[in-house]
Amino acid sequence: MKNKNTRAQKKDYFFGGSFFKEKKAQLEIIGLVFIVILVSMAMLFYLSYSVSKKDKQLYKQYADNELGASYASVFTKMSICGTEMNKLLEDCITTRRIVCEGGLDSCETVNKTILYLLDSTLDLWDESYGFTIRWTDDPRIEGYTDGTWQNSGENSYYFDDEKWVYTRRNCTDETTGIKRPPGLSPIPVGTTGDTISVEVGMCAQ
Amino acid sequence: MRLFSDNKKFSNQKAQIQMGETIFIVIFIILIIVFGLVFFSKAEGETIRDKQKQFRELDTITSAQYVASLTELKCSSYGAEDLSCFDKIKIKAFTNMTQNNWDLVGEYYVNKLGPADIRIEELYPNPQNWTIYNYTGTFDDPVNIYSGRQTQIPVALLNPITKEKAFGVLYLTLFDRII
User: Does ipTM surpass 0.85 in this model?
Assistant: First the structure.
């Protein structure tokens, strides 16, 4: 009889619901602590990851800016066809009087040299870049809005409102244009106040 | 007596059960904390490796800027320095110095540049190249030659006699020392 009461008490304790009723608050607290710990860890990982990613971008941005700036500067200073590249560009855009090796005029020589240099450097180093030569009487760079360049096609040079633009762009589909400021090497043309700009910029990644 | 003994038995069991619950909860919380610490330390390890990589990249930039500003190589005109320009005659002299007089100058440049390979390549108009510095360690100063990371910097190469400037590239490869 007494054994039956003891067994009944146990049965009632475990399966009658009183066990869970007594422990419900404890179970709730355990669940809450578990969730708080998980959320704290997740926030900690996110914060540490986001800071380190920004550091990476700063270094890449610095390296790309330096590369763009020095490329544009060296390109315009180099000697070619008995003169300097900036003089050859000026002749290409204005009078086209200079004749270089192989009977090529200034524009053809510039085009050939650009392709050779880009193939030997930025393309070989697997860089995504934009190389633009622009003639404008406005010192501001056209098409450069909020740090993003507008895509104006590849290997094209054309007369657009009497302005001459040569562009070669190698950005991949994942990028939307050149986001980093280009290395800029402006060349004054004659006495009219016009400027030729040689711009080399690395694509956004 | 029997009734009292049965109730006491049940009370003892209940107490054991409660103790078991408490122990289980403590173990569970400890497991969560340990798991979190292990995960966090692995993530921190990744972050530290990333930081190490960034510092190495910054070292590369520092070394590249140091080489680009070496007066032993830079162009000058009437005493004024020309940025991003190397003098070809100075390059040849420097190469001759580091290759044939390493005993005299090696220690100085190793202190400045460390284990590295520095090459200047002329691309246009006359392709040629010079290895102006190459130190890949010794028996007493071992270096991991597979850890090289390269930076390229376009430079103008001036012929001071003809005053013509060629298009060149400075290739700088830094290596890690084995500690």
Answer: no
